[in-house]
Amino acid sequence: MNTRRRIIAVAVPLVxxxxxxxxxxxxxxxxxxxxxxxxxxxxxxxxxxxxxxxxGTNTDTVVGFTVAAxxxxxxxxxxxxxxxxxxxxxGAPGNPTSVTAEYGDITLPNLGVSSAPVWIFTYQPKSCIxxxxxxGGCIDANYHTIASSTTGAFIASYVERRxxxxxx
Length: 168
What we know:
Elements: E1 10-16, E2 19-25, E3 47-53, E4 57-60, E5 65-68, H1 79-90, E6 98-108, E7 113-130, E8 138-148, E9 154-160
Parallel strand pairs: 3-6
Antiparallel strand pairs: 1-2, 4-5, 5-6, 6-7, 7-8, 8-9
């Protein structure tokens, strides 16, 4: 299998509209996947407890992406197949026991992604993200991974937490 990877990582605290969001983004591209790919859950992979499809358009101006209703009603890979591919690559901090999946088309201009069909996985319970600086410890935050719904390839992950301490 011929795989080409380009990884760009950004881990920065962002403040917008009174919310502090820690964004961790990376992108990986690959091609020439085997048509006979088999899918199997990897060690520690959480169970999918809910699957939805995006409707309308939702823009996250802090992280810098837009999710819209998908152009295709049926993804090439099921949520489970995409999770089976992306979990061994990216995983999630902590020990998530479940994950929800949302199917949609994403535009991520900062990473050169334009209207790509994706699965967005949100892990539960919230993850303990290491806190750097005085006090150490960690913060409980929502952790999301974005994977191609065509190949299951990792596109990006991000963590969110509001400045007031909430994680809504």
